[in-house]
Amino acid sequence: MARSSAELATKQQAVVPMRTGRSDRFLAALRAARRVVFVAHMQPDPDSLASMMGLGQLVQERLGIPAVLTQEGGIFRAENRAFVDLLHLELLPIEEYVRVPGDAIVMVDSQPGTGRHNHDLIGNVAAVIDHHVTPGNLGGVSYSDVRPELGATCTIVLKYLVEQRLCIAPKLGTALLYGIETELSGFPREATPADDEAAAILYGLADKELLAQIRHARLPQCHFDVLHQALQNATVFGNLVWTWVEPMNQPEQAAEVVDFLIRYDAAEWAICAGVHRNKVILSMRSSRANAKAGELLQAAIGDIGNAGGHERRAGGCIPLTATDTQALRAELVQRCVRTISGADTDGVPLVSATS
């Protein structure tokens, strides 16, 4: 007897599995959790903060599970502080987090084992969402979505929200747009059509007045102190401009310095190293295409620290084991010049001495 069309359809559905999107697989990895705790790298930036916001809403609305957004280290950069204050973000200091049975940890804009967070405080990680080229350890992670070809983690998060048909309110739209802006703005710009499309979508959803207040946050006096010292210490080695700041009030200031120095017309590379408490914070920019900045900075640092990043933007961290930093400063200059510039000169000051 010939089978009915209904019977054939039932058999076909049983044989061919339904396709699921990445957001579905992300949610499936967290379905058994009683609470989802989101963590990012130290001194979280707008890309990581907005990504945690979006994923937190996704988990709450689709799974009905409480979400906790955490913060490790301070948030000092004026724009980032305004971002947190104006958007009224509730962030739990990671030192106050106490794991309870049923918690699922989601790492956002970072990966385990990179040295960019205190992984020991949070235990095993259930999921990772990131866009960095970094030597992370994803062993034992139930779900990971790492897309180094994208310019921002917020772009991934927006794809999840759209895929799940979630409503994006102006507050979240503003956060996600600014998160993408901070990763893509300035020079060098690292963006894909997917990042630009995400920004275009979010621009129509964002609160423009709120966005303007964040973009143009008032700057503290220490910002100008650091910039002054960075310019005084800036040295040019061929196509590399290097500077050292000690002490550096805020770890984010290293990135602010190199964003400024890379605009020097003879520079293809800019590096700022700054002493912040018990660490040396490094930030690097390149004007070259396919510069592999993250890989080169890690090669320069070697086994004395950790680094990672993108093609033309990178950052790193070196623990300090002694209070005298002069020897480390001299070694870092040699390592960076040898690995990145290859210049065989002693270097010349970027800024002429003034009386």
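[next item in queue]
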Amino acid sequence: MIIFRVILILLAFVVVLVLALQNAQTPTSAVVFTRTYDIPVAFVMLYSFAFGALCVGIFSLVSEIQLRSRLYRRKKAQDALMEELRALRNAPLEGEYPPKPASGQPGPADGGA
């Protein structure tokens, strides 16, 4: 899947490059924050492509952070369940679980430390 992604990205760059070379000398006027610039169409295409790639990168980064945090929470919950399972596997077959302390030693329920 990664190779397919890389091929698509390279194909997009080639298409933008071909279009930019075809329109390299065609001038156009662009308005940026109330100022007008006379620049070639290739620059307009290149900057709009770069801005689009930057936006996609930012959204992908946010999505990746959310995914990793959700994965971390799930891993933590899985570790807690595995620890509980391990404790249940090691539980004694007879008697109560968790075992009560011996009658000579006060436990936490008896007011001891």
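[queue empty]
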